[in-house]
Write a structure and sequence with these properties.
single chain, about 200 residues, alpha/beta, Rossmann fold, 5-stranded parallel β-sheet, two-stranded antiparallel sheet
C-alpha cells in the first residue's frame, strides 16, 4: 500500500531555488538545523551563513552536514593565503535570503546599515527578497528600539515575520518566539508561488 500523504505545501515551489540562510545568535538558532533540512529536502540549494554568536548555539558541522555545503562563518576563507568569501557574489547568487533566527542585535545592525560580519555584509549586497524571523525575549521584542528597527527594515522592502506568542527560553510567555521551521519554509514557498517570475527577475537585477 502506497503512502497517500500529500507532500508539504513548500516542497515543489522550492525545487532548484538558491537560498541563503543567515543564522544569528539566539537560543532559537538550534531550529536552523531543522529549517536547513526542510529546505534541502524540498529541493533548494542552501548556503548557510553563521555569525560568531550563533556558533555558540549550533555548530557549523551540523549545518554543513545538513546543507551539504561548507558553512560560512566569516569574511576570510583562508587567512594564510588571504582568500575571502565574496559577500557581493553571495548576494547576487541568492534568490532569497532568509535570516532565522534574527536576533535583536542583528536586526539593529541591518536596520542601520552596520556591517560587522559576513551576514550583515551579504545583506547589504543582496538584491534578492530578504525574510527575517525575529527571536528574542518578549521585553526585547516589545522595546521601542526593536519595534522601530523592524519597521525600518519593512520600509526597505524586507519581509519581517510577526513573532508568535508562546513560552520563551526565559520562562516567560508572550511574543518573541521564532516561527517554526515548517512555517518559515511554507512562507518562502508561498512567496515564490505568488510572485511572478518577471518581478523576481527585476528584483534580482
Amino acid at each position: 500500500m502506497t503512502d497517500q500523504t500529500p507532500p508539504p505545501s513548500y516542497q515543489f515551489p522550492l525545487q532548484g531555488r538558491r537560498l541563503l540562510l543567515g543564522v544569528s545568535g539566539s537560543i532559537a538558532a538550534y531550529k536552523a538545523a531543522a529549517l536547513t533540512r526542510l529546505l534541502v529536502k524540498a529541493g533548494a540549494e542552501v548556503q548557510v551563513i553563521l555569525t560568531e554568536a550563533a556558533a555558540a548555539f549550533v555548530t557549523p558541522l551540523t549545518l554543513g552536514t545538513l546543507s551539504k555545503k561548507p558553512v560560512l562563518t566569516g569574511f576570510l576563507r583562508d587567512a594564510a593565503s588571504g582568500q575571502w568569501h565574496n559577500h557581493v557574489e553571495l548576494g547576487l547568487w541568492a534568490e532569497a535570503f532568509i535570516i532565522a533566527p534574527a536576533s535583536a542585535n542583528t536586526i539593529g545592525q541591518l536596520a542601520n546599515g552596520l556591517c560587522p560580519n559576513l551576514l550583515s555584509a551579504v545583506y547589504l549586497s543582496a538584491r534578492c527578497p530578504v525574510f527575517l524571523a525575529p527571536a528574542m525575549d518578549l521585553d526585547m521584542y516589545a522595546h521601542p528600539a526593536v519595534t522601530q528597527n523592524i519597521q525600518r527594515l519593512r520600509s526597505f522592502g524586507n519581509h519581517v515575520f510577526d513573532s508568535p506568542s508562546g513560552e520563551l527560553a526565559s520562562g516567560l510567555a508572550g511574543p518573541g518566539r521564532m516561527l517554526e521551521p515548517e512555517e518559515i519554509a511554507a512562507e518562502i514557498a508561498k512567496f515564490f508561488v505568488e510572485t511572478p517570475s518577471s518581478s523576481l527577475a527585476n528584483e534580482l537585477g
